[in-house]
Amino acid sequence: DAGVTQSPTHLIKTRGQQVTLRCSPKSGHDTVSWYQQALGQGPQFIFQYYEEEERQRGNFPDRFSGHQFPNYSSELNVNALLLGDSALYLCASSRQGRRNTGELFFGEGSRLTVL
Amino acid sequence: AQSVAQPEDQVNVAEGNPLTVKCTYSVSGNPYLFWYVQYPNRGLQFLLKYITGDNLVKGSYGFEAEFNKSQTSFHLKKPSALVSDSALYFCAVRDYDQTGANNLFFGTGTRLTVIP
């Protein structure tokens, strides 16, 4: 049973560029959440996708956008990169429904460095 | 809004001694509380959760957590620390809205170092 997979694991970009990060949820999961974890900080919620729609969003600018595909996989896009966007980007999956008690399953993350 | 606080950035403990990592919470309604662990350059791994029921929750790798409603705390504990327990620990609370969407709000983390 594959867990949450993310790609790429590491990448380096320069200021002003755009980046796309990808995530495949755990088998049987239909909801994907994205988090940003800056060095030495706790994960910060970016947004959550369910049924191919953004359901909830944290305090992040419009430069951060996403998409969910019919197979439940998801992409995180960041435009006009800033130095402060350097972080570990974590994808987490879960399953909607009455049995959902809020537990999230995380991938290993994508480490983005902006120069 | 839901929130959690981890008052200690760093906890040091000798191998074999009991360990405690502290967490306090602020929620409206019944709290759903979680502990996660993160090893260097890795994602977060689920340790345990409190939804309802017994105040002492048992989780992975011998960890347990005690839910205390009067003190709004959810401290992580282990009777005997191992060097391999050295990692970053995050407390989290479920945050949900009227649409049914929910996510986890994380604390700032506590770095646990177990000294041989």
Helix/strand layout:
The complex is a heterodimer of chains A (115) and B (116).
Chain A: E1 5-7, E2 10-13, E3 19-24, E4 31-37, E5 44-50, E6 53-57, E7 64-68, E8 74-78, E9 87-94, E10 105-106, E11 110-114
Parallel strand pairs in A: 2-11
Antiparallel strand pairs in A: 1-3, 3-8, 4-5, 4-9, 5-6, 7-8, 9-10, 9-11
Chain B: E1 3-5, E2 10-14, E3 19-21, E4 24-26, E5 33-38, E6 44-50, E7 56-58, E8 64-68, E9 73-78, E10 87-96, E11 102-106, E12 110-115
Name some characteristics of this structure:
heterodimer, A: 115 residues, mainly beta, 11 strands, B: 116 residues, 6-stranded mixed sheet, 4-stranded antiparallel sheet, 12 strands, globular
What would you say this structure looks like, in words?
- The complex is a heterodimer of chains A (115) and B (116).
- Chain A is mostly beta strands.
- Chain A is built from no helices and 11 strands.
- In chain A, strands 2, 4, 5, 6, 9, 10 and 11 form a 7-stranded mixed sheet that branches. Chain A has a 4-stranded antiparallel sheet with strand order 1-3-8-7, with no helix packed on it.
- Chain A is globular.
- Chain B contains no helices and 12 strands.
- In chain B, the strands form 3 sheets. In chain B, strands 2, 5, 6, 10, 11 and 12 form a 6-stranded mixed sheet that branches. Chain B has a 4-stranded antiparallel sheet with strand order 3-9-8-7, with no helix packed on it.
- The relative contact order of chain B is 0.32.
- The chains are: A mainly beta (115), B mainly beta (116).
- The A-B interface holds A 4, 33, 35, 40-45, 48, 50, 55-56, 58, 88, 90, 92, 96, 100-109, 111 and B 32, 34, 36, 41-46, 49, 51, 90, 94-97, 99-109.
